[in-house]
Write a structure and sequence with these properties.
Length: 440
Amino acid sequence: MKNPHLRAKLAEVLEAVMPHMDQTPNPLLSSVFHRKRVFCNFPYASHLAEALIKVFVDIEFTGDPHQFEQKFNYRRPMYPILRYMWGTDAYRESIKDLADYASKNLEAMNPPLFLRFLNLLMNDAIFLLDEAIQYLSKIKIQQIEKDRGEWDSLTPEARREKEAGLQMFGQLARFHNIMSNETIGTLAFLTSEIKSLFVHPFLAERIISMLNYFLQHLVGPKMGALKVKDFSEFDFKPQQLVSDICTIYLNLGDEENFCATVPKDGRSYSPTLFAQTVRVLKKINKPGNMIVAFSNLAERIKSLADLQQQEEETYADACDEFLDPIMSTLMSDPVVLPSSRVTVDRSTIARHLLRSFREGDIQPATRGDGLSVLEPWPSLSVTSRRRPRRWSAACGCGLGSVYNLEILNSDRDSERKECAGSRGRPAAVAMTPFDLHEEG
């Protein structure tokens, strides 16, 4: 079956025969027994999780003019199915196998299925929860206006329009809250055992910026804008969202790379944000071990943030040659794009390729060999690793020392020789979607 709409509809059928997770197990109930048999004794059970994830990904590109709105409805029944599968050993292992394959093939020409799935899952989470926040903010404003009597002076027609608008915002907020609860919840249980993909630079910055941004709205000063009269009317579950977000943090918090990436989110992260989160965890009576673990994680991240701040001050005078032309950050793994000969950081181009695949503006046939065609820039990479140490040594000992000045000048001369080959390269230009396409 190739029709993406019909394939997506099969998810509804699968949900209909799935055992209900909140149903009390009772061997005397034949319906429960037969529902479990469908999943446990299915001859192709080992392929079912992969098939479901593939449909989740494929409906992103149906070609239908309404595909953006349709995909959320199509994916709705897939979340409880994935949750049920995760609770079953055989299915959970098949999902973890997909994740392991993705971890080993991150630089393949076509991004692995599970990597694309996680990318789309995070896209949905970002869009859905952000939309829910916007609608709740509008509802809050209109509820205040109505309570103040500002609608009383309106004409009957204008008041009906206001009421209709409030009702519409309520329906939209409820839909986006239901879906965002599912997406964040899915990320929470996936990160309990799948970590390597989430902490990779491809995805770490994205998921961290997402988590911090939503924490800012849920526990920070902005949370007052979301306090509508009745949370349940709009399926708004802030306590569950905060708990799930903190669970994701704790699941990935043992990874050094993940913790070191958190402070780099200049938009939303601050030590105060995590202190506010700890306060909310106490307020909603989360388990003590969870609160202690998150407090320890917050302290660890704060220490890394202080260290990074010192490093940024040390590297403040870094020349443009060592900075990623897109992100303006010090490159840790510089590579050269084959067509334009522009030097960028590997993580930057990796995110660009994954985004391009999602948007459909780069087809597999024009992607060259993906990340495998990127050329390392060894001299720049070596210099990037060595120069900060010399900067740090010079700053620590004081530039007034003649001895240190001589060392610094000598190192600069050697750097000029090391980077002499880079002078013939064109200046950094904006990256195009076809930079990885080899010119024939």
